[in-house]
């Protein structure tokens, strides 16, 4: 079971440190994707890994405003988010760059949390359209990469307070599981009230959580509701 917090554009260096220190020894695997400015050499329980929300696929170089492998490696960062919908849709990150990032992270042997998910208009077209859309996001991706984790995050459920139903998550996860054997997370308005029913699904290996995870007390409550407690 993997429970991940994506801080997005939240937290300072001080509040991020307080958050990490509050985690203690969780019963499941935890990832914290924090802003670059809050990265540090944290001493944590081995089940807790710090991750990067983004990177530019170079070791170092002349890419003003970007962060490369050299900067992440200084903090021992080995888990990266790729393909998050906010980068695909708000930052207009092109598919070619997403694939380059993926290939680069594979060469670095980093853990990859690769995000896929359909927008509302595609969901409204029906499940065949959802499957076809997800296929386009899996194209060019090495689904056999051994350090791959996939996060299914329907765009319409992100930050809206309206999670996909367990039936929708189950149906979609069942389909994705026919395409890959990597651990599969769900993301999109997960909170302390719904996390147990979502991660309790047979096809769900954990959750990638945004807004409901930003306060340390709230994240600890989510971890408490994640009763399976097995460690992958
Ligand atoms: O990375 C996390 C997802 O974007 C979910 O965000 P959310 O929990 O605020 O809906």
UniProtKB/TrEMBL annotation:
Keywords for this entry?
Cytoplasm, Gluconeogenesis, Glycolysis, Isomerase
Q: Which Pfam families match?
A: TIM
Residues the record marks as active site: 84 (electrophile), 153 (proton acceptor)
**Which pathway does it serve?**
Carbohydrate degradation; glycolysis; D-glyceraldehyde 3-phosphate from glycerone phosphate: step 1/1; Carbohydrate biosynthesis; gluconeogenesis
Give GO terms: molecular function aspect only: triose-phosphate isomerase activity
Q: What is its main location?
A: cytoplasm
- Catalyses which reaction(s): D-glyceraldehyde 3-phosphate = dihydroxyacetone phosphate
Which EC numbers does the record give? 5.3.1.1
Q: How does it assemble?
A: Homodimer.
What does the similarity note say? Belongs to the triosephosphate isomerase family.
Task: State what protein this is by name.
Answer: Triosephosphate isomerase
State the species of origin: Sulfurospirillum tamanense
């Amino acid at each position: 079971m993997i429970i991940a917090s994506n801080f997005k554009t939240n937290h300072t260096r001080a509040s991020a440190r307080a958050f990490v220190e509050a985690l203690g020894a969780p019963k499941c695997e935890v990832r914290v994707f924090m802003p670059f400015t809050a990265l540090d050499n944290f001493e944590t329980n081995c089940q807790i890994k710090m991750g990067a929300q983004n990177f530019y696929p170079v070791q170092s170089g002349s890419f003003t405003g970007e962060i490369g492998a050299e900067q992440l490696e200084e903090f021992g960062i080995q888990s990266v988010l790729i393909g998050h919908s906010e980068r695909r849709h708000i930052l207009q990150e092109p598919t070619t760059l997403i694939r380059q990032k993926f290939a680069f992270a594979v060469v670095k042997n980093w853990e990859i949390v690769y995000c896929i998910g359909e927008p509302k208009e595609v969901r409204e077209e029906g499940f065949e359209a959802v499957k076809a859309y997800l296929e386009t996001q899996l194209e060019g991706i090495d689904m056999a990469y051994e350090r791959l984790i996939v996060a299914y995050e329907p765009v319409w459920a992100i930050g809206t307070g309206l999670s996909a139903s367990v039936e929708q998550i189950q149906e979609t996860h069942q389909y994705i599981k026919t395409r890959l054997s990597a651990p599969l997370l769900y993301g999109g308005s997960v909170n302390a009230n719904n996390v147990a029913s979502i991660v309790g699904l047979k096809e769900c290996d954990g959750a990638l959580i945004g807004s409901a995870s930003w306060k340390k007390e709230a994240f600890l409550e989510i971890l408490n509701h994640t009763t399976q407690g097995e460690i992958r």
